[in-house]
Amino acid sequence: MKGAPVSKAQSLTEIPCGFTLTENAIPEESWLEIVKFLRLDLEKEDLGIMISESHANDIIRWETTPTPQNRPVAQFGFRYDYGKDVVVLPSDELNEGIAATPPIPDLFQKLLLQPFLESEHGTNTIQNEIFTQCIINVYIASNDSHIPWHFDDLVFGPRVLVYSFGESRPLKMRKLKTGVVQKDKEMQSASTEKDYDYYTAYPSHCSRYVLSESARYEWQHSVPKGERWRISITFRSLSSS
């Protein structure tokens, strides 16, 4: 991508266990296929995304996260309800008479999941690691789109796979220092900056990263506001427990 920033990383601690970052994970041609599939207009400030309540028959169902995060998102496989902070399973949709969430597109399987699995296990020995949920997050500079500090919900499985496109916004990570008492969700804001160890990575255009082990369960992460658009495509599974 013309003008894509050079990837860099800086940290106050060593790389979190279970975090890996791969640059140039897919070619630009694959990204352009994804842009076409999502019907994005990269020349427009809002990327041409249309948020609509009446999208039951659409393959791509754009919705928006609550203020102040302000991110357009599209989900596949099953939904995460950002308003209620709960996973909505296909069985829940059926019981509530809600339109079923579309499956993960074949194009994503081919261009994103297959290259990852082949890099992990080789072309002839792909393991049965199944990602059953996919979410597209769109960060638009004009509406301050961002993601606050959080852990991915424990209902999701042990590995989170993320592809990053566009602006190289920081992926900030933090972990409570040894000896600092872990506060519950409501009290986390009471922790001060000095209570944490920090690590920051800068996923570049067409890169991917994985959160697993300590990086998945002990390190919170966030993505701040930026100056240009960024799109992430995240794959997760349900926890076996």
Automatic annotation (TrEMBL):
Entry annotated with the keyword Metal-binding: yes
Keywords: Iron, Metal-binding, Oxidoreductase
SUPFAM superfamilies, A to Z: Clavaminate synthase-like
InterPro entries from the UniProt entry: AlkB-like_sf (IPR037151), ALKBH4 (IPR032857), Oxoglu/Fe-dep_dioxygenase_dom (IPR005123)
Presence of keyword Oxidoreductase: yes
GO molecular function: demethylase activity; metal ion binding; oxidoreductase activity
Similarity remark: Belongs to the iron/ascorbate-dependent oxidoreductase family.
PANTHER family noted in UniProt: 2-OXOGLUTARATE AND FE-DEPENDENT OXYGENASE FAMILY PROTEIN, OXYGENASE-RELATED
Protein name listed in UniProt: Fe2OG dioxygenase domain-containing protein
Organism of this sequence: Chaetoceros tenuissimus
Organism ancestry: Eukaryota, Sar, Stramenopiles, Ochrophyta, Bacillariophyta
